[in-house]
Amino acid sequence: MSGKGEKKKGVEERLRVKTVGAHIESGCQKRAKRDKHDQFVKTLPKLTKFYSRPTSSTPTPEPIASSSTSNARDSEKSADDIDLSISPIVDSDNGADSDDSSDDTMSLSSVYSNASRPCSTLVNVSDSECALVNLDCNQSSDPGLWLLPFSSELVDFWIEKGPIACQNNDGAFLKSKRVYNAKGKKVNRKLNADSFKRKLPNGEIVARDWLIYSPSLGCVYCFVCVLFSKEENQFCKGFADWKHASTMLGCHEKSAHHVKCIRTYIERNSLSRVRRVDCELVKQYEKERNYWIQVLEPIVATIKFLANRGLGFRGDDEIIGSTRNGNYLGTLELIAQFDPFLNEHIKKYGNAGRGIPSYLSSTICNEFIDVMGQKVLKIIVAEIQESKYFSISVDSTPDVTHIDQLTFTFRYVKQDGPVERFVKFIPIARHTGEYLADCVLKFLETYKINVMDCRGQSYDNASNMSGQYNGLQARIKAVNEKAEYVPCGGHSLNLIGLKAAECCFVVVAYFLFVQNLYVFFSASPHRWNILCKALGGKVVLKRLIDVRWSAHADAVSALDSGYNEIQSALNLIANDEEEEPKTIIEAKSLSSKMDKLENVILTSIWNRILSRFNMVSKTLQSEDVNLSDIVSLMNSLKTFVQSVRDDFDDCVEKAKEKRPLAEYSFTTQRAKKRSVRVTRNEGPSIDAYLTGDTKFRVEVFYPILDSLNEGLSTRSVAYERINDRFFFLTQLNNMSNADIKSKCEQLAGFYCGDVDPTDLYGECLQFVYYVEDEVKERQKKESSPNIEGRKKTLFETLYSRIK
Q1: Dmax over Cα atoms in the chain, in whole Å?
Q2: Could you tell me if 697 and 648 are in contact, meaning their C-beta atoms sit under 8 angstroms apart?
Q3: Which of 136, 460, 633, 803 is most open to solvent, judged by the fewest CB atoms within 10 Å of its CB?
Q4: What is the mean pLDDT of residues 88-114?
Q5: Cα 53 from chain centre
Q6: Radius of gyration over every alpha carbon of the chain, rounded to an integer in angstroms
Q7: What is the Cα–Cα distance from 235 to 222, expressed in whole angstroms?
Q8: What 3-state class would DSSP assign to 413?
């Protein structure tokens, strides 16, 4: 038994090994099997063989020279590969413009070699990029750019659009020009507008709506055949045989396959969708789509309105019907009272909660604001890139959430004049010049705005902005030396006045006195009522605001106009026994300060100075001010300040006329003695005494005016430097040709690469001649009897100084 068992066990082991070994293939066997499979695959027919695409049997002529169109789809076929010739068909000029109407024979290849659609845009791109390019091309109004075959979605797209969207029959058809050989001569022919019309036997003119034109290739196509034809005929690939255009167009529109395509188009037209299998789904989809479009119209209009007015959107809640739901929902509720559709939508979807689309929530509101902002920013960036040159202005300010933001503003020139556009808030973490420069350069790089095209920068006068070495303007200028820095004119005036208001203790005390007057009366409605009654119809007191220097002008002007009335109100309060002791003491203290002559003089002087500074500041902030005006205004202020400095006695007399009994708080003061070491050999110095007028003149009046004069001289240097470079353009009529040429060369030398000195000089001379002719024409108009009521011309507005 043991021997039989061992024998049986050995047989089973051999069978197992044999069975296992049968499933193991060697490398040679695998390669042989793979080669056999590859040979089998090669014997299989290609999928394209199951679809036949017969070519048209009608030969068509080829122009002998045309560089405007190219065959990208059949580029592998050259003109020498095909040798076709046709006998003259019945010649007709109905379908083409020609320089020669004689019948002739033409050496040909194929018109389609110059009429195919370009496909080179799909080379070396990814699949997703190919799909995007295909979609953009196939939705173009130029049929020469279409990439066939169309998908079902694209066919539906063009059925809805119709052939009118891509017919392009209102141009000059310049690209359709073809050159033919006619008995040894070259004849030019091109498409004309008559090809888009068909004349019936009864004389009626019918439009060929199916005929569409490619402006890029200069060929015509059949709209319905391109969409539905299974046969590739001439009008699917592009027809350009203008010599036989009338005949071929007539033959095509009578052909069976064209009529079949027309029938298919009518059946699939949006007006005949009842025959579609998914017609109900399409109707439901369009109904839903139109519903939400109608909902979004008032919503988008509301968002645009609130954003344009700078109004807040949200309230304390988002509940329809609540009086605290904010301007956004409140405006929609107001519109819904007069719009039944929106009213029904709000009733149905209002307060529906999360997960149910209603387009009434703050989320969709923020999305629309972001989309609109991106669209506006994209348009502004496009305008800047089109204008090429620009200037920038940035400033930082914290918002209500204490996040410091950098405001970014561009100024550039469009065809209708200069414009200034705010583009974005940029959150910042530091205020150093290096950090701000990195923010500015990164922003320009992000939106592909070339910093080398920057020709100006304007900031406030802070050291981190206007610093000569480490400021923002210095770092931008290190990148682009042509980015000239111009400090803000309005801010410069504020700094000049602020420095003068802190030049001495008496001036500082004066403005504290002005602020205390306002605080005293505004702290109590009773006291304010007394002040208003005392002033009558005059301007009431105003408070001072450090960041707005115009507030100082308003406050001093109100005090100067009602000086005596304000003191009367103080005396009335001080003599009222029913008032609190603290109030009485404050009223008496303020009244006694108003009796001081120095305060009366300072009120008159500062009112005179600040009123002029305020008017100049407002002018500098206007949109139409230019650099030449800034320099002129700065110079006029320096002249004005100097005239006030020389007119101290007149200021004192006007002050005494207002308060005859007012006196200085100081009468005399002994002057300091000279050093004993200096006067040892000269004997003791004589004690010198200063009177009240002299002391006020030396210690208060002169420091104020000198500070203003010095500030104006220092701040105006930057404006004068740039104005000297361009000012000659406003004085061309008073300059010789040599001076004009010299100035043009200097300007072109600074803006090297931007301006050509020869061209600029020629344009300036031409402008001078234009000015002379315009002046003569204006003199003729002024001598006419209809001069009254005549509107100013653009020339008179811009160059009003020319006599």
Answers
A1: 156
A2: yes
A3: 803
A4: 37
A5: 51
A6: 44
A7: 5
A8: strand
Residue type, 481: E
Backbone dihedral angles phi then psi of residue 397, each to the nearest 5 degrees:
-155, 140
Distance CA 368, CA 379 (A): 17
Helix (H, G, I), strand (E, B) or coil at 197: strand
Note the helical H segments in 222-339: 223-228, 234-237, 245-254, 256-268, 279-309, 326-336
Return the pLDDT at 282: 73
Rounded to 5 degrees, φ, ψ at 66 are -155, 110
Residue 660 bridge partners (DSSP): none
Task: Write down the residue that tokens 């052909």 correspond to.
Answer: 255
pLDDT of 222 reads: 92
Instruction: Give the C-alpha separation, 265 to 416, whole Å.
Output: 48
One-letter amino acid for residue 157 of the chain: F
Average pLDDT taken over every residue of the chain: 78
Angle between helices 279-309 and 362-387 (to 10 degrees): 70
Measured from the Cβ of residue 560, the count of other Cβ atoms closer than 10 Å reads: 19
- SS3 annotation, 175-195: HHCEEEEECCEEEEEEECHHH
97 beta partners: 190
When pLDDT is cut at 50, 70 and 90, the band that residue 336 belongs to is very high
Q: And the tokens for 271? A: 């007006």
Strand partners, 405: 397, 427
Report yes or no: 139 and 157 within 8 Å, Cβ to Cβ.
yes
Nearest to 437 by CA among 409, 413, 465, 401: 465
Q: Are 107 and 61 in contact (CB under 8 A)?
A: no
pLDDT in tens, 609-664: 998 988 888 888 887 788 888 888 889 999 999 999 988 888 888 888 877 767 77
